[in-house]
Write a structure and sequence with these properties.
The chain is an alpha+beta fold and 683 residues long. It has 25 helices and 22 strands. The structure holds 2-(butylsulfanyl)adenosine.
Length: 683
Amino acid sequence: MSPAEAQKRIAELRAAVALHDELYHRRAKPEISDFDYDQLKQELAGLENRFPDAARAVGVETPTARVGDDRTEGFARVKHRQAMSTLENTYDEAELREFHARLAKALGPDDLAYTVEPKIDGVAVSLTFEHGQLVRAVTRGDGEEGDDVTVNVRTIRGLPPGLRGGRIPAMVEIRGEIFLREEEFRRINQLQEENGEAPYANPRNLAAGTLKQLDPQLVASRQLEIVLYGLGYCEPKVVDSQSAYHDQLKAWGLPVVEHFWLVRGIDAVWAAIQELDRLRRGFAYGTDGAVVKLDAFAQQNHKGVGYRGMGADGRAEAARKLSPRWACAFKFAPDRAETRVRAITIQVGRTGALTPVAELEPVTLAGTTVKRATLHNADEIARKDVRVGDAVLVEKAGEIIPAVVAVLRKKRPADSPPYAFPRACPVCHTAAVRAEGEVVWRCPNPQCPEKVRRRIEHFASKAGVDIEGLGEEMAALLLEKGLIKSISDIFRLKLEDLLPLKKSGEVWAGNLIAGIDARRDADLWRVINGLGIPQVGAAAAKDLARTFRSLEALAAADEADLLRIDGFGEKTAAAVRAWFADPANRALLCELQAAGVKPAPPAAASSALAGKTFVLTGTLPTLTREDATARIEAAGGKVAGSVSKKTHYVVAGEEAGSKLEKAKTLGVPVLDEAALRRLLGEA
Ligand code: IVH
């Protein structure tokens, strides 16, 4: 590879890693597997090391030198007393042995004592206990400063509010992971679907998404759990080794890891890892690897904290990631199986997106039979060079949808041609288009039968108006028989139309008609969501329903009206405007009205604070931050973490800082506690 090529690739990889960091840490919606992510990062780190000049030419900011940042809007930020570091992952036994060789060389004996612990696939948090009482829970954030999630963490049933027993430090930061059990994950995802929200990809994302909810009641309705294993700041010191610390955590009455091993020498470490691999499926939490730590704190301190990131000299000084040299994370390769690609088919989504799918020879993977795997998009197929007939590895790492992760090139048939992504919609044969800057090819034909089918299916689904009896199969049948051609036709169906469809179908047909009738006054947000407006999911649909209260008012909204909604940016506003400006969509709205569809607006919020966004800053005379938040929320308001033009009020107490300044600059009204209480109707 030439330096110029390296430079180009480094830039590409940095952009890709930054994107996936954002998707994983902030939005809890990853699009690639952890394994693929680790591979991207490893390739980037390798290139940065081999081509330091090229790396510098791209810029000093690199994701290999940063901890992924999980901080989001709506939470107060808190500095950790001791930074929260993270470890580079390895999948390779040889690298683990090198880790030991480095330590043995520096510290002397070859039989160093290590703990081997499960690497829990959850969300990292730091709990501060003062004189034994839990006072704060903070996410990792950028490693130095995280989000204050105390209110949410207090809802975790297995976490006692205080430490019991003796040897209680004046102040201690105890670190661990928050997670959800598999069953709880499935339960919530089912509800999620019924509420028209997208399902979460895996338990870890759901735990992360839950921890960042602004509504503690919602958090309490989900069974988050916690397990503790790490030590941050501690004054005075109470233990001198990691193994003693595990015992101490247990003695304090805290939930701890199911099992850890205290072993000497690297061979024993490796044996413990193998045993962990056999046991891990029985653990309450997902365990995606092992963390190996020097046991003695004195030895840990001797090795200290190293900086990782760009090459040995001339490295970037900015935002360098702290990574302890005394610990190593070994990850188990995800569940994978080898199979063959029988065909590559193209799915047409309701927005026309053409998604390639690998049709596989059925193979058992993590207990289920896998026949299909997504190939994401044309670029992904080209990058992996997946061809029909290829032997491939498929993977399922807690995700719902399995993915093709690698092609076994050596097993490729000699004459196989590269896959040519179709240039036309496979259903209506209209030439496919790809918008500037997008990776997705789309069918642009609004009448494409597949798009129509998907739109109807979506409208009737649990995420839309939720018509009982009108699922995928029924929608397809009604379309095939020519009984419906668009969404509004559903509401014109008559019993006589349905009777011939099935033998002795009276009961069934009657039920379907009743199911449809019952949804003529479906919740407005369900209708809006069901319409499938680009950029508008369930949450945005609910915002629109709350704000405009009818389809007519929404159709008449201009850009400024839409932008006033918290969380609506120009892209969403433009998409909504474009949808309602389209004559075909306007016609659809008229037809729905003519067919007797009268969506129900949300119950009017009783309080004057409904829809109002507050930001709290400084210390109030009597109300704690949690109290103030709870009261504002109970009155229908919302509490956000930072001040913007859309903030309605800033509530400022003593030692208010930059948020107060910003409120003044932007002309946002500032309240003191007394004024807030008046607004709440308390005084
Ligand atoms: S030790 C030494 N121990 O996995 C500082 N981390 O990179 C690193 N994790 O982000 C933490 N289980 O959130 C440690 N038994 C365990 C862990 C663990 C899960 C997470 C942690 C960190 C990452 C390691």
